[in-house]
Amino acid sequence: MNFFQLIIFGILFNAAIMLVSKGFRHYTIGIDSLPTISIVAGYTLGAASGLWAGIIVAVVYHLMRIRTIQYMPLTILANAVVGILASLMAFGSIFTAGIALLIVYHIISIAAVSVLGGLKPGYFSFITLNFITTIFLLYVVGMLV
What we know:
- The protein is mainly alpha-helical.
- It has one domain.
- The chain has six helices and no strands.
- α2 (about 35-45) runs parallel beside α4 (about 70-90), α2 (about 35-45) crosses α5 (about 95-115) and α5 (about 95-115) packs antiparallel against α6 (about 120-145).
- The longest helix has 24 residues, at about 120-145.
- The chain is globular, with a radius of gyration of 14 Å.
- It starts with a helix and ends with a helix.
């Protein structure tokens, strides 16, 4: 996949989840293509692609899911960081690098949300769903790259 295909895939995946989950979206937060797209872009295409993929997909995600807009700066930062770091981990398996970077992503996320006072029990449901989704997407996208 090239850069634009990754971006389109990430945006369409997020849009599809939002359409399918209409009416019970609160329970699907965490089922998204973040940070998978930035990890795959950084791993396969380099640091600049990982950075920009993370920024673009995060911005579009929050514009589609406007009620989470307060997390946009954090999401952009975390996705950009893992996108850049992914380029440094391109020597091994994309799946292993992705899991390691997903942990980094959520360490950044937990630290920032803790400081902002938003760390509640539901946040750990988000992390769990995001881990499941990201592992699935890394497997699927990993087969395509």
